[in-house]
């Protein structure tokens, strides 16, 4: 373990050195540009970015934030600093552009240097998408943002650096636009977020650095991936997590579950498979896994099953702790393993719920599968891990034993980030599922 951490720290040090090299490359490229370099093109991109900003701000104002940003105090502070400094930077950039005020330009640069850039660096570890590509892409973009802001601070009257900083500041806005467009068009379904942010970078980087920008960007990312694999030397599970897309899906994609059932032929012995209830299907699978008919599945069998489903290692460790001796009963298997294959598409609602308490009750009832009136801490841990929260932050948020039970009142009053975001995603996914249904039962 110590050796693994040492290799990881070494990797961070090397990436920091590469980032300094990127700063040198930025300087080498930009010092050759005239003050009016791509002025018209930059102004057009800035105007389009500002227009899209209105929609992105409206979206975030009307939608629940992802729990990873708000469940812990330090995350809340960071995201509020990020939003506040970002708004100041956006507004002061426009004021400085129209007035030519060096004082306002310096305020815009300080908003980036002291607020937006540090908070962006802090959030990089929990970025969505394939970490192999996304972490390096974020570091490259944030570093270019810092580089432009530092130059603007030194030259607060420079329109060249003002436009450069504003463009890089708006990469996330372009990401949201492409994320919506690709999702609407049904493109890049398996890599939607990664493709969106990369497309944004590949459009805006050349506006700042010129035609060589994308080669520098791809080289930076490729170097970081190669260094990670050679220095950290991750095991097969960590490597899989490093390169796989991490999404905002509420629960594990049901396609993984269904594919496993079909591929392994677990239900091949059932002649009336299509008439079995969900619990009966689960029991047949459990009986196949329980080779010695002991009524239990041992920890090794469970870990093998979870690895086939490519479940996050953090969940595997927690389930091992939860099952204590490693012996999993059918009831535990059905509630905590089999139901990993469920998604919000299984939830049926008559319509949208407006009242917060009713939303919380709806989510509570969904998690309280046995109608006991309580939710197990383990169920919440599973949900947070599947939402992409770091393992240590799940522990910090749920500072409790694995067998702790939460009543509805505790859930409603203390866990708004969970039920608010969960309900919103269930509503979205339910609409999508309803829209995807064929208009006639025989159309498929």
Rg, please? 25 Å
Quaternary structure classification? single chain
Which consecutive residue ranges, at least 5 long each, have pLDDT under 50? 248-253, 343-350, 428-444
Report the span from N to C terminus: 52 Å
Could you give the order of strands across the largest sheet? 1-2
Class from secondary-structure proportions: mainly alpha
Number of helices: 20
**Structural domains: how many:** 3
Structure report:
- With 444 residues, the protein is an all-alpha fold.
- It folds into 3 domains: 2-243, no CATH class; 254-342, EF-hand (Recoverin, domain 1, Orthogonal Bundle); 345-436, Recoverin, domain 1 (Orthogonal Bundle), CATH 1.10.238.
- The chain has helices at residues 2-30, 39-62, 73-99, 102-123, 131-154, 159-169, 171-185, 192-209, 213-232, 236-243, 254-264, 278-289, 299-308, 313-322, 330-337, 356-367, 377-386, 391-397, 408-414, 416-436; strands at residues 375-376, 405-406.
- Helix 1 packs antiparallel against helix 9, helix 3 (73-99) packs antiparallel against helix 4 and helix 6 runs antiparallel to helix 8 (192-209).
- The longest helix is centred in the first third of the chain and has 29 residues, at 2-30.
- The protein is elongated, with a radius of gyration of 25 Å.
Task: List strands and helices in order, with pairings.
Elements: H1 2-30, H2 39-62, H3 73-99, H4 102-123, H5 131-154, H6 159-169, H7 171-185, H8 192-209, H9 213-232, H10 236-243, H11 254-264, H12 278-289, H13 299-308, H14 313-322, H15 330-337, H16 356-367, E1 375-376, H17 377-386, H18 391-397, E2 405-406, H19 408-414, H20 416-436
Antiparallel strand pairs: 1-2
Helix pairs in contact: 1-5, 1-9, 2-6, 2-7, 3-4, 3-6, 4-5, 5-6, 5-8, 5-9, 6-8, 7-8, 14-17, 16-20
